[in-house]
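sorry to bug you again but im stuck and you know this stuff better than me. below you get a single protein, a line of residues and a line of whole numbers that encode the local backbone shape. mainly i need to know what kind of three dimensional shape the backbone takes. anything you notice is useful, everything is just below:

***
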Amino acid sequence: MDNTDVYAFVSPDNKGMVTLIANFAPFSVPSEGPNFYPWGTEKNARYDINVDTNGDAKPDHTFRYTFTTQDNRGKVDYGSKAAPGSFIYNNGPVNSVTDKTLLFKQFYTVTDVAADGGETTLVKNAPVAPDYVGPASMPNYGALRDQAVVDAKGGGKAFAGHAEDPFFLDIRVFDLIHGGDLSEVGRDTLAGFNVNSIALQVPIKSLTRKNDPVIGVWSTASRPGSRVMKADGTQGYSGGFVQVSRLGNPLVNEVVIPANLKDAFNSLKPVNDHTVKAAVDKVLKPELPVLVQKIYGIPAPKTPRKDLFSIYLTGLKGLNRPAGKVTPAEMLRLNTSIPPTSHPNRLGVLAGDNAGFPNGRRLTDDVTDISVQAVEGAVKVNSQGSATGVNIVKPLATGDQVNSNDKPFGHTFPYLALPNSASSRGISPTGGLHAGGGGTAQQLTAPLTVNGTSLALPAAGLAAGLLLLGAGAVVLRRGRTRTDG
């Protein structure tokens, strides 16, 4: 139920579609058999991708994924006198999701819940891509994953299953921010791990208003209000569903929100962000710049941080702020009118690539390096909420030196890399050796920065330096503290 990352981007191979991805269950070890990582079922779990189409911080579309399970392990009978049953995920090679050798199967349904409560079923009982046991059990896992990609009603596609974790960074930020001297960098700490992923491709025209191409996106997970453990080992559920996990912008839940307020934030609806100090107050007065000043001697920007307020809570005017009145709320905002580029830059808007972070988030966007600059005040925002320039903070310009994912992403939906398996992955999740750019310290640069002097952005205001979104967040891994309380 633990949200890890949310992605929203105009589909690179279909400009009329937007792709929404939400990941759960971080640090999934590929060898964690025999049960691996099943989804919660419709009785005890809901996984939602929420979309706000008018800036009021309320979901106009809630794309709800629910799961059912077909567990045949108790039916296996090898003909002995012993009671039938099996401990194993599959008892032979699996070449199709319908094979009898796949003993544990799950299925997903996707429902579009409208603001008025009306529901439209987009996908019904589609097969979940099974966990990748290994090449002996699943000699062509790519084919199995393809069977979990199905057409959705109204256009688009849907997917649910395991994937290689697309987030990349050196998580040694926890050791006094990369060792106190940037010595602990260059290792993709997440290399070798997997996540549970849901992905949906939706026609842009079905999500946007005619006069406003901007949407807001966040994911949530919910549990029933009561769970009872019975004497026979079964569980019973009752009460309405309660939101226990929430994620929008990368690194806000994890780094901006303090540990003592995480439960409150995870249960909070965006429309109520202004009512709880977990959200608005911590964006205006983030902790991270204070820690950077203490450890590295870089002066913390003055508070309240109106620049981060625009980046995290309203969107930047001229880039991804909704038209008309906007309710400040933490969510990932995407301007769907900005077309994808054939040569995406990992630094997104910071490098003049307005199709990337913080205008939504692509799989290849290096949100860590962008964010560590944003929290230090590199993005200059005027009183109207438009970015006017960017100043790269030189001592931190080399970033964490992990500039790309350890596995290449796909060119078609769902774009995610295939999951690691315990027997075939070449990287140990206890010490991934991947370093983006070959481990070379690639200095951050901005097209409109000369000798540390900020220059004006183009009139469109989109420009080279919205580096944003990182806000009070350096490279800390999502809600890595438990987000389900």
Summary: The longest strand covers residues 214-229.
